Amino acid sequence: MRISNPQSLKGIKRKLATMIELTIHSPAWFLGVDASLEAFAALIAFFVTFASYKVYRVSKENRYRSFMTAFILLTLSFLVRAGADSILEKIFLHLSQGLYAKVFFIGYVLHIFLALSAYLLLIAITHKIAQRRIIGLISILLFVAMILSGSYFLSFYIISTVLLAFVCVAYFQNFRKVHSQTSCLVFIAFLLLTLAQPQFLLEAVNDVWYATAHITQALGYLTLLITLLRLK
Amino acid sequence: MKRAKIDIIYDMLKAIEEKGGRIIPTHLLYKSNLSHQRMKLYLDELMQKKLIIEETKAEKTIYIITDEGRKFLQNFKRLKEFTQAFGL
């Protein structure tokens, strides 16, 4: 799309910046820690990707490829977010407002898009939704709802809570079926990831929630790491 | 219940291993519980992955498990635990 009027381009940028709320509701003592915890989440997601690749290499089955793809998307999602957070928190004083908005927008919107795609794939895998049309329909509804939303953050964390809760239910059912320690750990990991989402929503009320949300999320990924280590 | 591909591969390799690492097609067909056509497909794949090799002696074909195949059998338990833990 070509925008001939530079004023309208500025207007769009300003609107987008407002939509994503150009502030990080973090306690001062937590600045920098959040980016480290996001990088930690990316690392664990990468380990899960690698483990599922090993299964896929042997079986070449689509479900393992989809599972691997979901965790690749999560790895990228957290890498992008960690990158954006560290840039914004470390050098934001030297950035112009326009550049600050650009980094924020690209980093956070990409994080949201990648994370939601990953959660959708996990829903499809855990609930064994084989029909692509159904997955396509959910994706369209979800992304249209996101784009038209007045606040990307609010919509993202509400949708993430719902999607992860569904994944969680599937993992609880799997634990009841398999009754192994590792399946229990996977359920706990996803329960923690689910519980982190509403805490992110509360960050606007009190910035301490931003820290607790990150810590809960990191504990979820730590539980995934423990699961992987037990499977070694 | 329908067996996953990874389970079929494991059953075939286990059958070969239990026969001392060498098996004739008829025994493998019986042990792996597959149709002849499907077994042929899996055998081709196992050979492609270098998990087994085919040997013909005096017009008799035998399938031999390779070191890679033995390694796979050892790793399989771990892979199976992974797929079970994540409900795959």
Describe the structure.
- The complex is a heterodimer of chains A (about 230) and B (about 90).
- Chain A is about 80% helix and about 0% strand.
- By secondary structure, chain A is mainly alpha-helical.
- Chain A has one domain (about 30-230).
- In chain A, helix 3 (about 60-90) runs antiparallel to helix 4, helix 6 runs antiparallel to helix 7 and helix 7 runs antiparallel to helix 8.
- Chain A is globular and about 50 Å long.
- Chain B has a single domain, classed as Orthogonal Bundle (Arc Repressor Mutant, subunit A).
- Chain B contains four helices and three strands.
- Chain B has a three-stranded antiparallel beta sheet with strand order 1-3-2.
- In chain B, a hairpin with a 2-residue loop joins strand 2 (about 50-55) and strand 3.
- In chain B, helix 1 (about 5-20) packs antiparallel against helix 4 (about 65-85).
- The model of chain B has no long low-confidence stretch (mean pLDDT about 90).
- The chains are: A mainly alpha (about 230), B alpha+beta (about 90).
- The interface of A and B includes residues 55, 125, 126 and 232 of A.
